[in-house]
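Design request, tokens follow.
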């Protein structure tokens, strides 16, 4: 699995947990935007 796919999966799982455990309502389009932003910032996360 590529690192980009892994980070996308982690972001989506985090959003899913927020919905189920804390009852946040997150639209599918916002989920995709957030996950894509995480993938785009992956290099800065690795450097930190």
């Amino acid at each position: 699995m590529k690192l980009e796919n892994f980070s996308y999966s982690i972001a989506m799982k985090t959003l899913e947990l927020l919905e189920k455990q804390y009852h946040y309502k997150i639209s599918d389009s916002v989920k995709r935007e957030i996950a894509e932003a995480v993938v785009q910032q992956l290099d800065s996360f690795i450097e930190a």
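Comment from the thread starter after seeing the answer: thanks! The chain has a mean pLDDT of 92.
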